[in-house]
Amino acid sequence: MSIGTAVTEATAPPEPEPAEALRIVPQRRLGQWTAAAVVLVLLALALTSVVRNKAFQWDVVAEYFTSASVLRGLWLTLWLTAVVMALGFALGTLLAVLRLSGNPVLRAVSWGYVWLFRSIPILVQLLLWFNIGALYPRVLGVKTADLFGPVTVAIVGLTLHEAAYAAEVVRGGILSVDRGQIEAAQALGLSRLRRWRRIVLPQAMRSIVPPAGNMLIGTLKGTSIVSVIAVQDLLYSAQLIYHQTYQVIPLLMVATIWYTVVTSVLGVAQYYVEKHYARGSERTR
After folding, report:
1. At 53, is the secondary structure helix, strand, or coil?
2. CA distance 126 to 159
3. Residues 80/233, Cβ–Cβ less than 8 Å
4. DSSP of 211-279, one letter per residue?
5. Element (H, E) at 129
6. 0.90 exceeded by the pTM?
7. Highest-confidence segment of 3-7, 30-34, 74-78, 279-283
8. For the chain, how big is the Rg over CA atoms in Å?
9. Is 164 in contact with 92 (CB distance < 8 Å)?
10. Which pLDDT value is given to residue 185?
């Protein structure tokens, strides 16, 4: 063996070990696990304090949870939410179409509506509609007080309020559709109605459903504000009971649990609706 060959062999790097022999050690994240442990301990302490705190009076909560008056209030809350969302999105869709039209007058009217009803707090709107008889004592020869009962006021006030937000949700969904898709449909000779039904809406729903689901949950919780005008919804029903029994906390917990249950169901439904409209896109996962 020559001297040059020996030097080359001595200085040559060692051969790498086969991949099977390498041991992969995951990175240790002590900080994250410590924080998680602290959070779990705090959560357990909070739950324990809630369960063991006798002031909650869980036996009273169980007694009134399925009482007739509470269930009637729950039914009115659900019915009011469904009516307001249906009417609000119908009016909101019309406003969105007007906002996107080529007519400057229609665009200005739609913009003015959205600006006005988003500027006034919903409680103020409800109180104004509740006292509309002071401005217009009669409408078409009928007393305004007879036309605008508490439930009617709640529907009108909440619908007009929700329509302003629904208009922006629908408008944003329509604008999210690629303009090239609409131009391609026009080139194929599709009518305006078929373009909206087959091209625009299916794609716009991907952007409309998430905020619409949030609006639905927000409307469900927002209906509790109608208790100020004596609409016997879920919260008002609980209030009527604890004004008689003075068991404020247990009855508020009854309303809280029912709101939590219903919003959880709506959240699950929203997930599947989003999954349906996200087919064929990266958001399917």
Report:
1. coil
2. 11
3. yes
4. HHHHHHHHHHHHGGGGGGGT---HHHHHHHHHHHH--HHHHHHHHHHHHHHHHHHHHHHHHHHHHHHTT
5. helix 122-130
6. no
7. 74-78
8. 30
9. yes
10. 72
Helix (H, G, I), strand (E, B) or coil at 136: coil
Dist CA 173 CA 96 (whole Å): 10
Cα–Cα distance for residue pair 227/154, rounded to 1 Å:
10
- Which of 215, 255, 214, 253 has the alpha carbon at shortest distance from 232? 255
Do 241 and 253 contact (CB within 8 A), yes or no?
Answer: no
Pinpoint the alpha helices (H) of the chain. 3-11, 30-52, 58-64, 68-99, 104-119, 122-130, 144-147, 150-175, 179-187, 192-194, 201-222, 234-245, 248-277
Distance between alpha carbon 27 and the CA centroid of its chain, in Å? 38
**Helices vs strands, H then E, count in the chain:** 13, 2
Q: In which band, very low, low, confident or very high, does the pLDDT at 204 lie, cut at 50, 70 and 90?
A: confident
What is the spatial distance between Cα 26 and Cα 94, in angstroms, rounded to a whole number? 56
Joined tokens for residue 149: 């009962």
Q: What are phi and psi of 211, to 5 degrees?
A: -70, -30
Residues in the chain: 285
